[in-house]
Each structure stands twice: as structure tokens, then as C-alpha cells.
Amino acid sequence: MSSERLKEYLKYAQEKIDKHLDSLLGKNSPDVIYEAMRYSVFAGGKRLRPILCLLSYELLSAEEADEKVLDIACAIELIHTYSLIHDDLPAMDNDVLRRGKPTNHVVFGEAIAILAGDALLNKAAEVCLDWILRNKAKENFVKAAEYLFKASGTEGMIGGQVIDVVNSGKEITDENLLYEMHLKKTSKLIQASCVCGAYVAGAKEEVISDFEQYGKNLGLAFQIRDDILDLIGDSKKVGKSIGKDIKEKKNTFVTYYGIEKAQEYVESFSKKAIEIIEKYDRMSFLIELTNYLINREK
Ligand code: GRG
Asked: Which residue ranges does UniProt annotate as crossing the membrane (predicted)?
């Protein structure tokens, strides 16, 4: 159970992020592409990645998150949303529900869903470039954007998805490959969220590296917890059918290790994540968020 203070912070940060996303996405446009983009961006996501970005920035800089960090934080959410739209497509996971709502291609058709995903990725690049220019191409801002686009590209999220796609229907028997897939597919964008916040705060390279390692371990714990929830928490987790991953022979940590060992891994990765950041001041809040995420029920 999270503390009232954490709940309040999450609400405050989600509102800030939603307001900013709203301003970035062609608010009153009647164009179907904006409708499709907005449909998925405002479909009820937790905003975990932009929250990690804002929080890393706030904790390291001791300043409240403002437009200095909101652009890059929202660019991360735009990339995350595009990946979910494309992941749900018939050519990939062929899912009809996400977050308890019909998926983008079910509502808008496959062609528009592909374009909405593309447009969100494009928008993320536009937002980052405008932000860099407005901030006179400060080196730490450029580094943050570079990190984000590498983390979501072939060495990161897309690379992880490729491993998933080429092994679909087969059982991954190599533990290292299973890790590589999840590190790239899930952890990289979570790492990028923490690293970008740290870069904007002006953190030194050693701190950036710690936040990178924190994000990596949190990402793994988060992914394994997600796999466990898919299996046991379906009555609570809207939009997924019971044990779908196991029935469809998906390669997850739970199908590989079984549920008990998988839970042990959630605990050991989150412990590692916390150990990395607890040497810094003011981290109690991030530690609380870590515990909340890995103990979540949905
Ligand atoms: C299609 C390029 C491309 C990549 C797809 C992100 C992804 C890669 C696939 C989505 C499916 C999946 C199991 C991703 C793992 C990460 C994960 C648990 C995503 C869901 O993230 P949450 O829980 O989502 O933060 P919300 O709904 O809260 O935004």
C-alpha cells in the first residue's frame, strides 16, 4: 500500500503530464490522425515513465518540474504509446483490448493505427528538437534526447521487440536471450526515463550511470511483476484474458522460471535498484515508488 504522500504526488504529476500532453497533441483538430493519437495517449496509462523522469529531475535538482523537463518527459510517453499501438496490431500481438478499452486498430482500422503510432514517434522527435533549440542546444539536453532515441531504437525497445517477434511460437531456452529481450523491450525506456531526468538536472556522469543501473533493475522487476500479474491477477487486470501468455506460449519470465522463482527475481532486482539510489540524499520517495510499482496488483 502506498502512502498518502506518494498517492498525492502521483496524482499531481499525472495531472501535470496530461496537461502538457494535451497541449502537444492538436487539441481541437478534427483530423482523424489526431483523434487516433489522442485516443491512445489518453486511454488511462499510469504515466510511469514520465513520472520517473520528473521525479529523477526533481530529486537531483531540488527544483519543481516545469517546462524545462516536461517536454522530454512527455516525448517518452509519446514513444511508449506508439509502441503499445504497434504492439497490439494484428501483425504483432493482435490484441483487441488494452487498458480495458478497444485497441487503436479496432477503433480506427489498421492503416490509421499504424499511422497514429508513426505520428506519435514523429511528434516525440519534433518535441525534443523544439525543446533543444529553445534551450540553446545545451549539451545535457542533447545527450538526454540522444539517449532516449537510442533506447527506443534498434539497440533498445525495437531491438527487444525484434527478438520477441523472431522467436514467437518457439520457446526461448537461452536465459541470456530472454534477459536481452526484456532488457531491451522494457528496461531501456524505463532507464531512459531516469537518465533523461538526471541529464536535465545537470547530473554528473557517475550519477547518470547510477540512474541508468537503477532504471535497468527497476525495469526488469517491473516486467517480471507484469508477467506475474498477467497470470494471476487477471480478475483485477482489465483487458487481458487469463494466462494468455502461457496459453499462447509467449516467452516471459514466468513461463521460463515458474511463478515462485519469478517473484524471487522481482524482489532481488528491486532490492538491487534500491541499493543503487539509497546512497543519495532525498531518495526516500523514489524508493517508495519502486516498492509500490513492484508490489502493484494491476
Ligand atoms: C512495437 C516497437 C514496438 C515495441 C513494442 C512496449 C512494447 C514493445 C510492447 C508492449 C508489450 C509489453 C509486454 C511491454 C513490456 C513493457 C510493459 C509492461 C508495458 C506496459 O507498460 P505500462 O504498464 O503501461 O507502464 P500503461 O498502460 O500504464 O501505460
From this structure: none
Contact 168, 130 (CB under 8 A): no
Task: Note the pLDDT tens digit of each residue in 162-194.
Answer: 999 999 989 999 999 999 999 999 999 999 999
Q: What secondary structure does DSSP assign to 109-151, as a single string?
A: -HHHHHHHHHHHHHHHHHHHHHHHHHTTT-HHHHHHHHHHHHH
Distance 134 CA to ligand 1 centre (A): 31
At 249 the pLDDT is 65
Distance CA 176, CA 251 (A): 13
Q: Of all atoms in ligand 1, which is nearest to the CA of residue 98? A: 27
For residue 195, which of 219, 177, 171, 172 has the smallest C-alpha distance? 219
Mean pLDDT, rounded, of the chain = 92
Burial class (CB in 10 A: 0-12, 13-18, 19+), 285: middle
Does domain 4-294 match CATH 3.40.50.2300?
Answer: no
Domain map (residue ranges) of the chain: 4-294
| Closest C-alpha among 111, 59, 66 to residue 86 | 111
Asked if 200 and 69 touch (Cβ cutoff 8 Å), the reply is yes
Distance between CA atoms of residues 138 and 136, nearest Å: 6
Mutate to test the pocket of ligand 1, among 168, 186, 296 (most ligand atoms within 8 A of CB): 186
H or E stretch at 162: helix 157-166
Contact 191, 219 (CB under 8 A): yes
Give this prediction's pTM. 0.94
Closest atom, ligand 1, to C-alpha of 158: 2
Q: How many CA atoms, within 13 angstroms, populate the side-chain half-sphere of residue 186? A: 21
The size of the chain, in residues, is 298
Find the mean pLDDT for residues 241-252. 61
Predicted complex ipTM? 0.92
Query: Using CA atoms, how far apart are residues 37 and 268, in angstroms rounded to an integer?
Result: 37
Alpha-carbon 79 to chain mean position? 9
